Amino acid sequence: MSASLTIAVGTTIEPLSVGPISQAQIAAFADRSGDNNPIHVDEAAARRAGLAASPVPGMQIVAWLHAAAARFDRAIDVTGLSTRFLAPVAAGETIVISGRIVQVDAAGGRAVMRLFVKTAAGVLTSIAEANLALPPGQGRA
Question: What residues make up the domain containing 67?
Fold first, then answer.
């Protein structure tokens, strides 16, 4: 999107597809983030916990949510992101992140984007809201 974009309630983002998410990607993220929970890096530990495969760390999903919101328009800053996890995303799955603007305060230079994470099979795994800081003169209710 360009800096001249007018943001309105209902404006949608281009979906972001991530995956298939490999066990190596999960292990690399867990290592870099200091997440030492064995279910993320040891498939046997994940199975003992009742999971079919190692789950993607929640913060890794949050990082992709942030990327989806930030790429909407480079002139917009993501100032906050809250996420509710509804179901785990397993190693080997592909996720699709979609979103839309649900609130605009043009006078205050703020907007809220609601984001959805679904597996390729259509299972809703997370819902998030990103707080956005708009550049001067951008947006309308």
Answer: 16-21+55-133
